[in-house]
Amino acid sequence: MTSILTIAYGDICSFEPGDPKLHEAYALTEQSAAIFGPIEQLAEFFSVIKYIMPNRDQKYKDLGHAIEVFYGGLLTNFKKLKEEPENVKDCFVKEILGAGILTDLQIMNFISLFIGAGSETTTSTLRWMFAILANNPDIQERAYQEIVTNVGTDVLPSYEDGKKS
After folding, report:
1. Please, are residues 102 and 96 in contact by the beta-carbon 8 Å criterion?
2. Distance of alpha carbon 130 from alpha carbon 128, whole angstroms
3. pLDDT tens digits, 27-41
4. From CA 82, how far away is CA 78, in angstroms rounded?
5. Closest by Cα among 11, 16, 31 to 119
6. pTM (2 d.p.)
């Protein structure tokens, strides 16, 4: 999640594990996935289901407000930093603001979707990678040796380390 947030907002989202803001982002993503789950998608195709399901309008409104508060706060902080361009590295929000074609609300909702989709995709990819590595010890060993050679075991990998292989 921190990687996706950093791609979106740059360094202002370099959260450490345990950071309450990071947990808030997780919670919003989880709530969005739950509230717009398979039943809601079916209801779009079979309108009769809408009459059977409990009314969730208030939940939708509450989630929309929570997204606006969280991502709006990040956007406000980002805009303050952007006043001094040397404080802001290239990131997705910088590009969107630079284009000037979306409103703040559109940006907040777009980033919320981006975070949710990116998190789910990353999670799925990592699950498959772990399953493949667990079932292929030879590939696991080659990957480990590449990490040892290019990064080492005492530090976290950086962007620059990716250029080494």
Report:
1. yes
2. 5
3. 888 888 777 777 777
4. 6
5. 31
6. 0.64
